């Protein structure tokens, strides 16, 4: 965490820090209901959105952002006041994305309502920068408030961010004939990548990044050309001055060179304004007030209470209080202790002599529980009911599912979850029915094909292609091999992809028998992926079947 800024007496909190190496800015707001106070808070919050950091902003904004955001008996239904219009303008300027999206045809996205349901509105929002890819989102009812909480899961892609600022297309580059010819030729090569991606949308997202890189290179070439032209004009100016000192009449050429230099400096000044991301700056206008407004919006945090309630006023104490609070908030917590200590709950026994049981698996926000009998199921349901009574939360039955293996008699106590008849995915691997292995492998092969398709655009030697196969394609296949053995048709498909990846160039012609040999034996060390996957699966199977017996001293068995 880098800094913490409080606005309008705690109505808005701005925290700057970094997450996974990416600079982020977290903004939490609780906007007052008065229109004048709400408008004043948005005016103070607006400069905080002028940043190169990834923005995540959320809270109770007490206003709607679209005409269908409010319905009921309230006067002025669906009307946006000045504060709401200012907020919509701020969101558009900062290129923020609503994590929930538009209201839609139904009322599922309303975040607040009266107890009788007569008035409903959406006044709570979550906004993120476009560099945050939203994976999933939902609205959760909480027992301590009449508002619904917004929960979303995303990841920082950093895909379209370049350096400290956003990238804009310099339209003047489109008038260069050499750039037009190179773009036509390069775009035809990009069209050949459509088959390696799953959809046209994904291909277009990939092409946009390539267009950005293409025009960056064109811009660099143009900048080098301008520098050379500037050096040429400077040298010509010096030569004309020397001729003038010797008595030559060079007044007209000298004025022409000075005029070209003046135009060069004028264009360079507008390039600086273009890179500064100031959109509403007219010619001849100075931006002193713009920067003064940004600097005046930063109010320092001078006091903060720690967890003991002691008021801290020094920089070190305030930083320690904030670090302790967020460190405890986001620290790792043992969430499965109750499941492991429950005696009536029995899981799946593991192979070997350890006599252990697998009761649950947790990954991110996904929880997978294993039960072997009806008592375990009833014990699990009772634990969920007790947790709901203590916390006020309920299990999302619509997003939960159960999978039965073998014979089960649940007529007396039916499950509250829908029973899945097909395959169940655990960490992207299918289980629980015929065809699970084939489906898992069929979903894995397009990923490998896409990776090899990207690398095929580069001019690589056989040794470099072997390195790509070993470090980029093989780990994806090994992940599936941990659960399912390699199928014959999958091995043929892998060999086919490797063959086309290595031998698509006519300059590389080496026998397959030589291709898999090591360098010291005269080969190219291209990995034999099917053989490696079979050995990997057998080694894992051998490790499960031949687990060593536990030590008596460690287990305490006398």
Keywords for this entry:
558 residues; alpha+beta; Deoxyribonuclease I, Chain A; 6-stranded mixed beta sheet; 3-stranded antiparallel beta sheet; 15 helices; flat
Describe, in plain words, how this protein is organized in 3D.
The protein is built from 15 helices and 19 strands. With 558 residues, the chain is of the alpha+beta class. The longest helix has 46 residues, at 200-245. Helix 4 (200-245) packs antiparallel against helix 5 (251-275). The strands form seven sheets. A six-stranded mixed β-sheet has the order 1-2-3-4-9-6, covered by helices on one side. Residues 159-165 and 549-558 have low confidence and may be disordered. The protein is flat, with a radius of gyration of 32 Å. This is Reverse transcriptase domain-containing protein. GO terms for molecular function: catalytic activity. It comes from Pleurodeles waltl (Iberian ribbed newt). Residues 356-403 form the Reverse transcriptase domain.
Q: How many H/I helical runs? A: 15
Shape: flat
Number of domains: 5
Number of beta strands? 19
CATH topology description of the largest domain = Deoxyribonuclease I, Chain A
Radius of gyration computed on alpha carbons: 32 Å
Low-confidence blocks of residues? 159-165, 549-558
Question: What's the name of the CATH homologous superfamily of the largest domain?
Answer: Endonuclease/exonuclease/phosphatase
Strand order of the largest sheet: 1-2-3-4-9-6
Percent of residues in helical segments? 40-55%
* Largest beta-sheet characterization: 6 strands, mixed
Task: Find the structural class using helix and strand composition.
Answer: alpha+beta
Write down the CATH class of the largest domain.
Answer: Alpha Beta
What's the quaternary structure here? single chain
CATH architecture descriptor text of the largest domain: 4-Layer Sandwich
Overall mean pLDDT: 78
Indicate the proportion of strand residues.
15-25%
Distance between the first and last residues' Cα? 52 Å
């Amino acid at each position: 965490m880098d800094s913490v800024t409080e606005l309008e007496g705690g109505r808005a909190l701005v925290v700057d820090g970094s997450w996974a190496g990416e600079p982020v800015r977290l903004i939490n707001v609780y906007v007052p209901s008065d229109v004048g106070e709400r408008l004043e808070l948005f005016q103070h919050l607006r400069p905080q959105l002028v940043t190169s950091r990834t923005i995540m902003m959320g809270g109770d904004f007490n206003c709607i952002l679209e005409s269908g955001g409010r319905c009921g008996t309230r006067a002025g239904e669906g009307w946006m006041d000045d504060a709401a219009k200012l907020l919509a303008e701020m969101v558009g300027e900062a290129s923020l994305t609503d994590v929930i999206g538009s209201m839609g045809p139904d009322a599922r996205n309303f975040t607040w309502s009266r107890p009788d349901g007569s008035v409903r509105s959406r006044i709570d929002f979550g906004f993120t920068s476009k560099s945050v890819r939203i994976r999933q989102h939902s609205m959760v009812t909480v027992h301590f408030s009449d508002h619904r909480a917004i929960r979303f899961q995303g990841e920082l892609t950093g895909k379209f961010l370049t350096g400290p600022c956003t990238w804009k297309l310099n339209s003047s580059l489109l008038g260069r004939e050499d750039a037009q010819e190179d773009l036509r030729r390069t775009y035809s090569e990009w069209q050949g990548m459509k088959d390696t991606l799953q959809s046209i949308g994904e291909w277009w997202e990939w092409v946009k990044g390539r267009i950005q890189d293409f025009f960056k290179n064109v811009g660099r070439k143009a900048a080098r050309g301008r520098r050379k032209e500037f050096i040429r004009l400077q040298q010509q100016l010096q030569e004309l001055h020397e001729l003038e000192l010797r008595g030559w009449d060079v007044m007209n050429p000298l004025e022409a060179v000075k005029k070209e230099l003046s135009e060069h400096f004028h264009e360079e000044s507008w390039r600086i304004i273009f890179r500064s991301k100031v959109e509403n700056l007219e010619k001849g206008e100075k931006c002193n007030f713009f920067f003064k407004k940004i600097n005046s919006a930063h109010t320092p945090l001078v006091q903060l209470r720690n967890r003991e309630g002691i008021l801290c006023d020094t920089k070190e104490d305030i930083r320690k209080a904030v670090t302790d609070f967020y460190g405890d908030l986001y620290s790792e917590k043992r969430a499965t202790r109750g499941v492991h200590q429950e005696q009536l709950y029995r899981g799946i026994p593991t192979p070997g002599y350890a006599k252990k049981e697998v009761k649950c698996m947790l990954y991110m926000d996904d929880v997978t529980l294993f039960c072997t009998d009806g008592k375990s199921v009833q014990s699990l349901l009772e634990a969920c009911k007790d947790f709901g009574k203590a916390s006020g939360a309920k299990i999302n039955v619509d997003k939960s599912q159960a999978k039965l293996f073998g014979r089960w008699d649940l007529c007396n106590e039916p499950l509250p979850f829908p029973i899945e008849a097909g395959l169940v995915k655990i960490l992207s691997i299918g289980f629980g029915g015929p065809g699970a292995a084939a489906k898992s492998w069929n979903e894995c092969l397009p990923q490998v094909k896409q990776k090899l398709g990207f690398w095929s655009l580069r001019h690589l030697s056989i040794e470099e292609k072997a390195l790509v196969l070993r470090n980029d394609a093989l780990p994806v296949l090994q992940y599936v091999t941990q659960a399912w053995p390699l199928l014959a048709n999958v091995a043929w498909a892998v060999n086919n992809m490797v063959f086309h990846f290595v031998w698509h160039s006519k300059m590389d012609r080496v026998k397959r028998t030589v291709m898999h040999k090591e360098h010291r034996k005269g080969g190219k060390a291209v990995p034999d992926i099917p053989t490696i996957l079979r050995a990997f699966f057998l080694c894992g199977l051998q490790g499960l079947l031949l687990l060593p017996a536990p030590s008596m001293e460690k287990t305490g068995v006398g």
